[in-house]
Amino acid sequence: MRSRGVHLEYSFQPDGQRGADVHNPLFELLSALREHGSIQHAAQAMGASYRHTWGQLKHWESVLGEPLVTWTQGQPARLTPFAQRLLWAEERARARLTPHIEALRAELERVLAEALDGTQQVLTVYASHDLALPLLREQALRQGLHIELKFAGSVDALRALAEGRCIVAGFHVPCGADAHSLFARSLKPLLKPGRHKLIGCARRTQGLMVARGNPLGIQQLEDLVRNGVRFVNRQSGSGTRLLTDHLLQAHRIDGKRIAGYAETTEDSHIAVAAAVASGSADAGIGIEAAARAYGLDFIALTQEDYFLVCLRNALEEAGVLKLREVLNGAAWGETLSALPGYAQERSGQVLSLTRALAWWKFRAAKVPADRG
């Protein structure tokens, strides 16, 4: 393929976008051809004429210097091996960049919102990657609150809160993780009872994501150590990496025995799902919603609570009050119900660290024996 540069641009439109939905006519064309198997049906799906679609196909073949479609008389049109590799590469890159694209879009939306309405509330949130939070941001925006959402690992998000880089941070822990867990050792030093307050957000399911039909018959964590199983991990510092290590420790599995555990990592649930869907990995741990988005099979492993946290003295700030109001609303419950593996759990409620997390379970003082 001849060398070609990549040019990025953005525009303001009446309707918003979600996730990494970045418009690119080449990949929209390739996706339609892959799905529908003919130029005519692909053109109909895109609302274009056969002539226009054919012209676009020839245009892109000229730009790239490679054929994109092959067909035989009487057979459906098929993407060439080059086109298949190109499409999968773009989908994986898009998945990897989803959190960054969402952050960029949020910042541009904030700039526009401030220009249009100087009274709008702005709340900076650093949070562990999650598919529901961009939807929360959309709901909040409709109610006059702009959430400047920046995705980071759970540890990095809590550090951002400690360093004053955000008002609210988001992290997640498996239900019932005790004082001896990796979560307690990693996150407890960053959370202080009396200083921090939790806000309930959601409950979600994490598990193993595997190819559709589960061709390798992966059913449990122990199967990851089998020869030929390639694993894709999350980056160090992420809540899901902590969860992975927590589960492996509970099952007494050495991560060094898992192919790809240390060598292959991604920065989001969507990127892990894309890696499995592309065939570059056989399994990864992530949320059910990401697995379903890529048509993968899913083996549930645990439920976890996703919390938001702020300083106690920030609870009554206008932005945090509005956030709690949105989380308490029926619309948020409906949003979570529509996402596979999500449920509303104390959403919008202010929770104390010692009551919500099993890490702080103080032993009651002993009552002296009655010697009378």
- CATH domain topology of the largest domain: D-Maltodextrin-Binding Protein, domain 2
- The Cα radius of gyration reads 24 Å
Which CATH class of the largest domain?
Alpha Beta
Would you tell me the structural class of the helices and strands? alpha/beta
> SSE order, as H and E?
HHHEEHEHEHEHEEHEHEHEHHEEH
Mean pLDDT: 85
Shape: globular
Give the helix level as a range of percent.
25-40%
Q: Would you identify the CATH architecture of the largest domain?
A: 3-Layer(aba) Sandwich
How many structurally independent domains? Answer: 2
Number of helices: 13
- Number of distinct beta strands: 12
Which residues sit in consecutive blocks of at least 5 with pLDDT less than 50? Answer: 362-372
End-to-end span in angstroms?
Answer: 94 Å
Summarize the main sheet: 10 strands, mixed
β content, as a range?
Answer: 15-25%
Brief overview:
With 372 residues, this protein is an alpha/beta fold.
Please outline the helices and strands.
Elements: H1 25-36, H2 39-46, H3 50-64, E1 69-70, E2 78-79, H4 81-116, E3 121-127, H5 133-142, E4 145-151, H6 154-162, E5 168-174, H7 182-187, E6 196-210, E7 231-234, H8 239-250, E8 265-266, H9 269-278, E9 283-287, H10 288-293, E10 297-311, H11 318-328, H12 330-337, E11 342-343, E12 350-351, H13 353-356
Parallel strand pairs: 3-4, 3-5, 7-8, 7-9
Antiparallel strand pairs: 1-2, 5-10, 6-9, 6-10, 6-11, 6-12
Helix pairs in contact: 1-2, 2-3, 4-9
